[in-house]
Structures are given as C-alpha cells and as structure tokens.
Amino acid sequence: MIKLVQNITPDELTSIMNIWREGNAEGHPFIAETYWKDKSDLVAKMLPKSNIYAYYDDSKHIIGFLGEMDNYIAGLFVKNEFQTLGIGTQLINHVKELKSPLNLHVYKKNSKALKFYLKNRFIIDSEAVDGETNEIEFSMSWKK
To answer: Is the pTM for the entire model greater than 0.90?
Structure first.
C-alpha cells in the first residue's frame, strides 16, 4: 500500500532514514560512506518538508519510499530484500499520476538505478560532475 506520509512520526523517520542509509551504501559503493553519514542530519531535516510516498507491507512497516519536492525526485529507495518485486515501479507510477514533469539526478555509476529510470521512460537531459563527490551524474526528466 502506498501512502503520502503527513506529519511524519519519529518511528517513520527512523525507518525511512534506515532505508535511505542502506540504499545509498548499496547503490553508491563508489562514494565513501562518510559522505552519506555527513548528509544524514540534513536529509532527516528535509524529509518532513518533502512529499514522502511510503510503501507499506502487510504489517504496516515501511519497506520503500519516494521523496519528492517541487516535481524533483530527491530519492527512491526500497529495502534490499524487497527489490525487484515492482515496489519502486509502483512508487514512481503513483507519483507520475500526481505530478508532471518530474526531474531527478542519478549517478552514472549507479547502473541499476539508471536502468530503472530509463525503463520507466525518463530521459537523460544532461550530464555533469557533482561538485561534492566528483562523480558524473545525469539530470533526467519525465513528462506526460
């Protein structure tokens, strides 16, 4: 079940942050883990200001989420053990029904995410070097 999380609770924030940390460590092995640790506080502060679409399992636990702000997808993460079950696609399709256009950035080396977004009809608009990580990232977009 997908639900817009409003008035995020401390437990929801903890679950989302754990998924965020695990997802970044797995999806970005080319970036030092300290980078993500240094970003944790900022992300935790930004989450309540964003539209968080959470995917809940039957036990009402968050197992994936998509964060969006001003038509920008700031992140899409699904717990590792639930990946490849279509949860990410359900989240992205849910947001596509609500917003257009959508924009995002993805690291070139994150081939799994890049393949996912291309499969979901996002196009690469440009590429640039991320000044903080010195990694190439693509700017991507989708519109109805």
So the answer is: yes
